[in-house]
């Protein structure tokens, strides 16, 4: 286990006197015993990390390549490297202070209560919109399977997509009422397997079900680069989970290797899906590649049904932090079951309304990726590390690299958010 600086500084010398090192280790062990009770093995942490990183973003990578062209894949790897590096910075921030347990704790350690508030806002907004994206994804794919379903009630006509969004919300409703989501956490761990099944099913559809990989595509489309980068960023939005993974580990010094394995495997799956999907459908690829699949083929149905199961199992886990934060605003009622059910139900209803009002999965994920994911996963970890470590006081290679990453992040946030909002507004009024 690496020796951690007693004073919380990240700039302690790597080589110290042996006697001093032993005294420091004894001091750390006596003061930080409470915080070193992690029991999770490195292998299980890798599985949890893969589950956090692998999500519905894999469905939109072919659309991202379609927007920016083949060369935009370079930006996928640039974002992956930047996100991996910011993950290492989160680890360094947590090593600086044993009291840091969560992502908002890092913000508070760096910038006080304002830092905690800022990070909390970005976290909860990101979780809210990802949960909303789940409902949009479900409605789109179910409409693709059953396009003729519609409901007429009291003079109102509800189309297939809207009907399925409401039905899925009713299915999800009991799960958000649960106080203990441990069962759902085990179900949601199937996300890693689900992503692999989806990738294999779509490859099978292209290789053996007559679709083929004949589309040459576009080499580069400058106008679509902001959208492509935003969608790539959405694929790496798991940084708020990293502190939890770190504190749960039995051997925390292996966390860097765990992150490396997770990022390599997930980036490989994202890039593979992008290449396979774009080669199959070219510029005609939808925001969710599953919408392009011929539904009569078994491989297509496997991919679509796997896509449908995963969001249902993960929705409650996504909104639980928001529910808990909302409950804390009302300390007099937070322990009362009816009140908790009311908060959970109201939150679900609000996401249904947003999903019905903004039925554009790709554009919503682009907005989340540009404005929220890039800020929460790349920019804020860099700024927090610079403040906690004091590295900003001395100009060096590390500061230059971090400064470049922050500059890239700010550019993506500005141009990506602007482009996503224009696309959403344009489709709402067309």
UniProtKB/TrEMBL annotation:
The chain crosses the membrane at residues 69-90, 117-136, 156-176, 183-205, 225-246, 258-282, 302-326, 338-361, 367-388, 400-425. It holds the Pfam family Aa_trans. It is found in: Membrane. The keyword Transmembrane applies. InterPro entries: AA_transpt_TM. It is a multi-pass membrane protein. Signal peptide: none annotated. Keywords: Amino-acid transport, Membrane, Transmembrane, Transmembrane helix, Transport. Residues 39-420 form the Amino acid transporter transmembrane domain. The keyword Transmembrane helix applies. It comes from the Eukaryota. This is Amino acid transporter transmembrane domain-containing protein.
């Amino acid at each position: 286990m690496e020796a951690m600086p007693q004073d919380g500084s990240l700039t302690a010398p790597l080589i110290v006197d042996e006697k001093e090192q032993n005294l420091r280790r004894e001091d750390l062990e006596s003061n930080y015993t409470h915080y070193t009770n992690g029991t999770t093995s490195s292998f299980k942490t890798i599985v949890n990390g893969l589950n956090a990183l692998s999500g519905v973003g894999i469905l939109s990578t072919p659309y991202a390549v379609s927007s920016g062209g083949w060369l935009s894949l370079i930006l996928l790897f640039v974002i992956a490297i930047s996100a991996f590096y910011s993950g290492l910075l989160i680890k360094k921030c947590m090593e600086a202070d044993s009291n840091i347990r969560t992502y908002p704790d890092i913000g508070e350690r760096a910038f006080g209560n304002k830092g905690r508030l800022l990070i909390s806002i970005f976290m909860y907004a990101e979780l809210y919109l990802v949960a909303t994206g789940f409902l949009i994804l479900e409605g789109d794919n179910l409409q693709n399977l059953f396009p003729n379903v519609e409901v007429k009630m009291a003079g109102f006509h509800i189309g297939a997509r809207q009907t399925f969004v409401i039905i899925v919300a009713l299915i999800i409703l009991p799960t958000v009422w649960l106080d203990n989501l441990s069962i759902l956490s085990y179900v949601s761990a199937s996300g890693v397997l689900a992503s692999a099944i989806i990738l294999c099913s779509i490859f099978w559809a292209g290789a053996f079900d007559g679709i083929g990989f004949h589309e040459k595509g576009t080499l580069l489309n400058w106008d679509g680069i902001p959208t492509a980068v935003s969608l790539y960023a959405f694929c790496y939005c798991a940084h708020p989970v990293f502190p939890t993974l770190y504190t749960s580990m039995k051997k925390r010094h292996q966390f860097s290797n765990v992150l490396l394995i997770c990022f390599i495997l997930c980036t490989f799956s994202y890039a593979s899906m992008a290449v396979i999907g774009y080669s199959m459908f070219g510029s005609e690829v939808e925001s969710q590649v599953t919408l392009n699949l011929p539904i009569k083929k078994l491989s297509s149905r496997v991919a679509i049904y796997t896509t449908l199961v995963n969001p249902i199992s993960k929705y409650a886990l996504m909104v639980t932090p928001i529910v808990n934060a909302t409950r804390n605003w009302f300390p007099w009622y937070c322990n009362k079951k009816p009140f908790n059910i009311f908060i959970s139900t109201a939150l679900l209803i609000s996401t249904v309304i947003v999903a019905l009002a903004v039925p554009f999965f790709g554009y919503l994920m682009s907005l989340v990726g540009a404005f929220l994911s890039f800020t929460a996963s790349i920019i804020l970890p860099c700024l927090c590390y610079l403040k906690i470590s004091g590295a900003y006081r001395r100009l060096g290679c590390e500061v230059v690299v971090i400064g470049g990453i922050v500059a890239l992040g700010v550019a993506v946030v500005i141009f990506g958010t602007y482009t996503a909002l224009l696309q959403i507004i344009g489709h709402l009024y067309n």
